[in-house]
Amino acid sequence: MRIKKGDLVQVISGATQARGGDRGKQGRVIAVLPERGRVLVEGVNRVTKHVKAGAAGRGSGGRETVEAPIHVSNVQLVDPETGRPTRVGVRTETTERDGRTVTTRVRVAKRSGKDIA
């Protein structure tokens, strides 16, 4: 999975915002669930959850809105240079350290060619 926690992503499929959907919204990735192929995005796919009142400091219970997971294929990373959605590529860099060859993988925005932090 090429999306990581903290990345800025944009929803690229689903209902438009005019129809009450989330397509076009941008947000930071809160969590990545690779075993399910899903991500949690801040402010996207919000659902109402009914919370039972409990003794363990949860308060009085009621309804709260929380982010639900969205499939990773429905989001795309936002290019740091252009601010538009882009595909993610991987470039390998080989360096010499202490007489050893070390290979590192760097994520790259396909749209602008810039490295993704």
Explain the overall architecture:
The chain has 117 residues and is mainly beta. It has 2 domains: 1-78, SH3 type barrels; 81-117, no CATH class. The chain contains no helices and 10 strands. The strands form 3 sheets. A 6-stranded antiparallel β-sheet has the order 6-3-2-1-7-8, with no helix packed on it. A two-stranded antiparallel ribbon has the order 4-5. Strands 9-10 form a two-stranded antiparallel sheet. Residues 83-92 have a biased composition (Low complexity).
Give the gist of this structure.
By secondary structure, the chain is mainly β. The protein is built from no helices and 10 strands. A hairpin with a 6-residue loop joins strand 7 (75-78) and strand 8 (85-86).
Give the arrangement of secondary structure elements.
Blueprint: E1 8-11, E2 26-33, E3 38-41, E4 46-51, E5 62-67, E6 70-71, E7 75-78, E8 85-86, E9 88-97, E10 100-109
Antiparallel strand pairs: 1-2, 1-7, 2-3, 3-6, 4-5, 7-8, 9-10
Subunit structure: Part of the 50S ribosomal subunit.
Keywords: Ribonucleoprotein, Ribosomal protein, RNA-binding, rRNA-binding
Pfam family, one: ribosomal_L24
Multimer state:
single chain
The whole-angstrom Rg is 19 Å
- Name the poorly predicted regions: none
Q: Which strands sit side by side, in order, in the main sheet? A: 6-3-2-1-7-8
Main sheet summary:
6 strands, antiparallel
What is the domain tally? 2
CATH architecture type of the largest domain: Roll
